[in-house]
Amino acid sequence: MPTINQLVRQGREVETIKSKSPAMQNSPQRRGVCTRVYTTTPKKPNSALRKVA
């Protein structure tokens, strides 16, 4: 743990948060391209083959 003197001199480094989808940053309704369409089974009490894009 740093001393108050060390914090005054150097300060703490702020973590920058990177966006997981930079293309959708300014326009969340922008059209996207499906890279993979597959079927998967839902969680426990339900059962079916759901299409996931």
Write the layout of secondary structure elements.
Blueprint: H1 4-10, E1 38-40, E2 50-52
Antiparallel strand pairs: 1-2
- Low-pLDDT stretches: none
> What is the helix tally?
1
Q: Which geometry do the CA atoms define?
A: elongated
Helical percent range? 10-25%
Number of strands: 2
SS-based structural class?
little secondary structure
How much is the average pLDDT? 89
Strand residue content: 5-15%
Major sheet details: 2 strands, antiparallel
The N- and C-terminal alpha carbons lie at a distance of 47 Å
Strand order of the largest sheet: 1-2
Rg over alpha carbons:
23 Å
Could you describe the 3D structure shown?
The protein is largely without helices or strands. Helix content is 13%, strand content 11%. Strands 1-2 form a two-stranded antiparallel sheet. 0% of the residues are buried.
Defining traits:
single chain, 53 residues, two-stranded antiparallel ribbon, 1 helix, 2 strands, 11% strand, elongated
Short structural summary:
The chain has one helix and two strands. With 53 residues, it is mostly loops.
